[in-house]
Amino acid sequence: MPPRSSEPPFLEPFLGVVFDLDGTLVLSHHDFGRMRSEVIRLAERHGVLPGHLSPREPIHRIVESAREELRVAGAPDGEVWRFEAEYARAIDAIEMEALPRTVVRPGAAPLLRELTRRGFRTGVLTRSSETFARAALRATGLDGYFAYLRSRSAPGPAKPSPEALLFLLHEMGVPVDRALYVGDHPIDAECAARSRVRFYAVLPDPSEGREPATTAERFLAAGASAVARDLPDLGRQLNVASATPAA
Fold first, then answer.
1. pLDDT in tens, 2-25
2. Residues paired with residue 227 on neighbouring β-strands, in sequence order
3. What is the assigned CATH class of domain 16-29+102-237?
């Protein structure tokens, strides 16, 4: 789906592209349901009332709700910090279990190769841990394309906080109005919109069986400038399509 006719005043051409990782560049099929359940279990162990947290919410929303409830209840800072350390270790461990089945998303390598050949700066902004993100890029052969990476393990706010994306762009030396963020999830669209960075959505790979929240219409409503069917389609929209289409 081509760009919409009315967009914020971005400058052309763009200079750098930041990608989401899981679902966008690699397919790992994380057990997010188990992650959410584990975060809720730990939150309740530290004082959150049972039933107050919904397993239907994204993990970062569950954590925010748990943190707020603990603080309102007067939990000591140490209790909150212990909860945060424990849930981080738990989801890190579950995440690493997906590494052996993580594969490159079709079209990722040709797209990144062409972007690199043409001199664009590329980075990764992910809610995965630093350990998983580095290992997944290495296992799929994409690590050579990214000198810049920011994960949930990095100091400071994590995606979808706008500070996460803005900090990465600053590190890359790419102005906000000359940047593009590419992702496959509504959280990516939220992060880009809050950062005032142009966003292109890529529809989820069919193998993921994603819920209907990730449709082209929903992405456009969330502020996406364009929506691509897959990574080869994204390359065509960016005019950097590889000479050999991906299978």
1. 555 445 445 567 899 999 999 999
2. 201
3. alpha beta
